């Protein structure tokens, strides 16, 4: 006698529900040879399905040994058991267990997906099998569009898809009308004649009578075994196809998983859209917020840099004290500017004295700022005149009543007319306009820099502002690399002329720039974090939906495991689904975010588009899918297949 295909030795199965232990099978001993047609008969609740699940490696015995082809399956790992289910066993269930969202062909293809059969071949074979079983017209129908008999034939085709050696049928006719039932039995008989080992489970003696061998089971024990009346010479056990198709490279797997994911997502479109929305909003807000934050930062930095980074700014008042707004801190003098100008590496030291003044031309009055300063201002501030000339040293010495108008002032007083040579009245003193400044634009703090009139220092001090103290000295340096040394030298020079009292402060634009950049970065990070939170919320939405998905599709998962899916296949399937949702949401979010930011830019908000935030947001969405999809997927992958199959 050769090794039986299946040998059960003292098999027992006890279900444990907390304290409660139910023993369903006890001491079952059974040999089944290759090529037999066996019926296992018993009343409802006698343990037939439990036995069948054990035979098909969906379940493990509590006691005893199960030898398949002489090998103890207790030694097999989960992937090897999956391979047995995939390659060796074909299941047929009473309630068909088809995947409701898949067509007949797709249902039949499932076992071959996990065996790694290439798409085309798989498709073709599934259609051939279905046609052979008389379903050639029904290839693209979903289970709900098929009669019970047709559904059962689909499930038979599925059982044959990987050319299983052993067909396990659990009450295959239980839900069918008698004609369909007879058809199914005829099919099983045919399969047996073609050399398959067929094991049918039934409570119906008529059905059982079709088999060559009858095993009766009651209360979990075999009470009668007719034995095999005409033991066929068993065909040498065709070795279980050992290797999966080489084409089952991970890549093909992933492509398949993505297709399955898209199908599953399409099956529940409204829910998918809602889930997507969370991710889309999250990603879009990250993109928009960072574009706005970076835009604001760049705008401020540009304005500051446009003032020149090679500047030192001297202000009156001791460091770290608030300077009163009216400039009453009277500590900075023209002499300080002259001292500073003597320091090495200093190109120019421009004194500035500010006041408010009303300028009149003809009947037009205009309130503006007057700045009394020296000839070097255009150089130091990098601000040339647009027409005419700037104040020179001689004007200063002569106390000349000349003025250079900022663009805003010129436009307000003279419109488009050329004011050069004209006179304006300031404090009832006529000043001749000798030049117009080029347009400078807004200052970093937002003020209009063109709203100003420049006059010579002495003239302004005496006739317009009425004070002798400066509001600031702007110092332009030559070699930026020596900025620190120069700053220190200027500091010492002024300190000396102030008799050692530090009643002034020096700042350089470079460090100011750094400070502002830092503040703006904080602002951007803040915006980004708020947006990231909305992405997180989107991710939680994904996890929520995936958990619902996994629960809803518990039975589908059971079917996939029964037809040979590995734990990793199930894990991959649900993770890919989560990632596909997140990636689609991410892509839409990026597009939406860029469009929105573009709209903001159109309406005048400073926006900076950079690839960084876009990639970051998309990457986060992708990672969100992975992270939040993992938990539900893990849950699905570790379902007990028997329990999963009986879920509704
Ligand atoms: P049959 O298929 O012969 O009708 P089953 O094998 O499905 O019988 O069940 C046999 C017995 O085991 C039944 O009494 C059933 O209630 C019990 N049973 C089946 N599955 C479980 C389970 N997961 N936990 C506890 N009891 C179970
Ligand atoms: Mg049953």
What small molecules does the structure contain?
adenosine-5'-diphosphate, magnesium ion
Q: In what range is the share of β-strand residues?
A: 15-25%
Kindly report how far apart the N and C termini lie.
44 Å
The CATH topology name of the largest domain reads Rossmann fold
What is the number of helices? 20
Q: Please give the order of strands in the largest beta sheet.
A: 6-7-8-3-9-10
Structural class based on helices, strands and sheet pairing: alpha/beta
In helices, the fraction of residues equals 40-55%
Average pLDDT confidence is 88
Domain count: the total is 3
Report the CATH architecture of the largest domain. 3-Layer(aba) Sandwich
CATH class descriptor name of the largest domain: Alpha Beta
User: How many strand elements?
Assistant: 20
Runs in which pLDDT lies below 50 for 5 or more consecutive residues are: 236-242, 324-328
Q: Can you say what the CATH homologous superfamily of the largest domain is? A: P-loop containing nucleotide triphosphate hydrolases
Family: Belongs to the ABC transporter superfamily. Macrolide exporter (TC 3.A.1.122) family.
Keywords: ATP-binding, Cell inner membrane, Cell membrane, Membrane, Nucleotide-binding, Translocase, Transmembrane, Transmembrane helix, Transport
InterPro entries: AAA+_ATPase, ABC3_permease_C, ABC_transporter-like_ATP-bd, ABC_transporter-like_CS, MacB-like_ATP-bd, MacB_PCD, Macrolide_Exporter_MacB, P-loop_NTPase
Protein name: Pyoverdine export ATP-binding/permease protein PvdT
């Amino acid at each position: 006698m050769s090794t039986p295909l299946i040998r059960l030795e003292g098999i027992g199965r006890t279900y444990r529900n907390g304290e409660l232990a139910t023993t369903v099978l006890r001491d079952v001993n059974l040999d089944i040879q290759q090529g037999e047609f066996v019926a296992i008969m018993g009343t409802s609740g006698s343990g037939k399905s439990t036995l069948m699940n054990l035979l098909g490696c969906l379940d493990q015995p509590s006691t005893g040994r199960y030898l398949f082809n002489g090998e103890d399956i207790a030694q097999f790992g989960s992937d090897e058991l999956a391979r047995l289910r995939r390659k060796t066993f074909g299941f047929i269930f009473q309630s068909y267990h088809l995947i409701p969202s898949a067509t007949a062909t797709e249902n039949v293809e499932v076992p071959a997906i996990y065996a790694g059969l290439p798409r085309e071949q798989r498709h073709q074979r599934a259609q051939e099998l279905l046609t052979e079983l008389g379903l050639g017209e029904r290839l693209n129908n979903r289970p709900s569009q098929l009669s019970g008999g047709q559904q059962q034939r689909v499930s038979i085709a599925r059982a044959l898809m990987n050319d299983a050696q052993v067909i396990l049928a659990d009450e295959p006719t239980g839900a069918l009308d008698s004609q369909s039932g007879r058809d199914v039995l005829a099919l099983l008989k045919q399969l047996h004649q073609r050399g398959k080992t067929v094991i049918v489970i039934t409570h119906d003696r008529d059905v059982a009578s079709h088999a060559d061998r009858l095993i009766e089971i009651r209360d979990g024990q075999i009470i009668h075994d007719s034995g095999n009346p005409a033991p066929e010479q068993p065909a040498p056990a065709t070795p279980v196809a050992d290797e999966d198709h080489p084409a089952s490279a991970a890549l093909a797997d992933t492509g398949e998983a993505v297709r399955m994911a898209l199908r599953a997502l399409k099956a529940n479109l409204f829910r998918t859209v809602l889930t997507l929305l969370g991710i889309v909003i999250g990603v879009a807000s990250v993109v928009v917020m960072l574009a706005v934050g970076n835009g604001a930062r760049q705008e401020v930095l540009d304005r500051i840099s446009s003032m020149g980074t090679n500047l030192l700014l001297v202000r009156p008042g001791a460091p770290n004290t608030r300077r009163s707004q009216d400039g009453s801190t009277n500590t900075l003098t023209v002499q300080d500017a002259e001292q500073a100008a003597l320091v090495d590496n200093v190109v120019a030291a421009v004194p500035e004295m500010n006041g408010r003044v009303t300028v009149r031309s003809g009947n037009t009055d205009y309130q503006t700022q007057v700045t009394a300063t020296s000839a070097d201002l255009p150089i130091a501030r990098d601000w040339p005149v647009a027409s005419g000339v700037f104040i020179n040293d001689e004007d200063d010495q002569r106390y000349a009543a000349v003025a250079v108008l900022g663009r805003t002032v010129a436009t307000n007083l003279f419109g488009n007319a050329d004011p050069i040579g004209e006179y304006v009245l300031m404090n009832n003193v006529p000043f001749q306009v000798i030049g117009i400044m080029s347009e400078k634009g807004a200052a970093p703090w937002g003020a209009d820099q063109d709203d100003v009139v420049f006059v010579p220092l002495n003239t302004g001090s005496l006739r317009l502002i009425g004070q002798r103290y400066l509001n600031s000295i702007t110092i332009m340096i030559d070699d930026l690399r020596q900025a620190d040394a120069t700053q220190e030298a200027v500091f010492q020079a002024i300190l000396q002329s102030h008799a050692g009292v530090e009643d002034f402060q020096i700042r350089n634009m470079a460090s100011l720039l750094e400070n502002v950049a830092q503040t703006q970065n904080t602002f951007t990070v803040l915006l980004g974090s708020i947006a990231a939170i909305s992405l997180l919320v989107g991710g939680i939405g994904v996890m929520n939906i995936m958990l619902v998905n996994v629960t809803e599709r518990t039975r589908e998962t059971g079917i996939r495991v029964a037809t040979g899916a590995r734990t990793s296949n199930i894990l991959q399937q649900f993770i890919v689904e989560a990632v596909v949702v997140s990636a689609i949401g991410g892509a839409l979010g990026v597009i939406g975010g860029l469009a929105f930011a573009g709209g903001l830019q159109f309406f005048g908000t400073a926006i900076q588009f950079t690839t960084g935030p876009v990639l970051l947001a998309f990457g986060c969405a992708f990672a969100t899918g992975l992270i939040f999809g993992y938990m539900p997927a893990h849950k699905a992958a570790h379902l007990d297949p028997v329990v999963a199959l009986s879920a509704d």
